[in-house]
């Protein structure tokens, strides 16, 4: 379940729980709305924390002094992604 589906469930559950005033025999629509809200919140939390991308990045900077560069300094920046796998062979 993605973020969009979770937000949709929360919205539909809130509408059913708070805005609908229809009597249905054998079904309490307020409870159904609260169940949909709870399912949406659980889905949102699971999506955000458990199934979020595990790709982490770090930035490495290295300064090299060069007389030909303006100010005499060249900065090289590299972004390294670490997702638990070894880097691919070049």
Features:
90 residues, single chain, two-stranded antiparallel sheet, 2 helices, rod-shaped, alpha+beta
Description:
By secondary structure, the protein is α+β, with helices and mostly antiparallel strands. The chain has a domain at 3-49. Helix content is 41%, strand content 22%. It is built from two helices and two strands; from the N terminus they run ααββ. It has a two-stranded antiparallel sheet with strand order 1-2. Strand 1 and strand 2 form a beta hairpin. Helix 1 (3-18) packs antiparallel against helix 2. The longest helix has 21 residues, at 29-49. It is rod-shaped. The mean pLDDT is 79.
Structure summarized in a few sentences:
It contains 2 helices and 2 strands. Helix 1 runs antiparallel to helix 2 (29-49).
Low-confidence stretches: none
* Number of DSSP E strands: 2
Helix content: 40-55%
Euclidean distance between termini CA atoms: 37 Å
Largest beta sheet: strand ordering: 1-2
Shape: rod-shaped
Number of helices: 2
Rg from alpha-carbon coordinates: 26 Å
Q: What portion of the residues fall into strands of 2 or more residues? A: 15-25%
Provide mean pLDDT, rounded. Answer: 79
What structural class is derived from the secondary structure elements?
alpha+beta
Order of helices and strands: HHEE
Largest beta sheet, briefly?
Answer: 2 strands, antiparallel
List the helices and strands and how they pair.
Elements: H1 3-18, H2 29-49, E1 56-65, E2 73-82
Antiparallel strand pairs: 1-2
Helix pairs in contact: 1-2
